[in-house]
Design a protein that fits this description.
alpha+beta; single chain; His_PPase_superfam; His_Pase_superF_clade-1; 89 residues; Phosphoglycerate mutase
């Protein structure tokens, strides 16, 4: 990720992916809000293999919007509340 100095932590990534997948499957067809800090968000993005597509740095207070379908997360929007910008992906 651009300007992202985050050490990959495979164990954290696996736990986040497992948990988020379980939530998405249990709440299929619903809108779900999951709240976390920037470090966990960064690890989740790394777990999804999105680091090469990222042009932003997830910070605390940001919003990442995902769609989940066919066992896959799709990042569709990044909202940076600190910089007051929205990036549709």
């Amino acid at each position: 990720m651009k300007n992202l100095a985050v050490k990959q932590n495979r164990s954290v990534q696996e736990r986040l992916l497992k948990t988020m997948t379980a939530i998405a499957q249990a709440e299929a067809g619903k809108t779900v809000l999951a709240v976390s800090h920037a470090g966990a968000l960064s690890q989740f993005l790394l777990a999804l293999g999105l680091e090469k597509k990222m042009t932003f740095f997830p910070s605390n207070c940001c919003v990442l919007e995902f769609h989940y379908e066919a066992d896959q997360f799709d990042l569709v929007r990044f909202i940076d509340t600190l910089e007051e910008k929205i990036i549709n992906l």
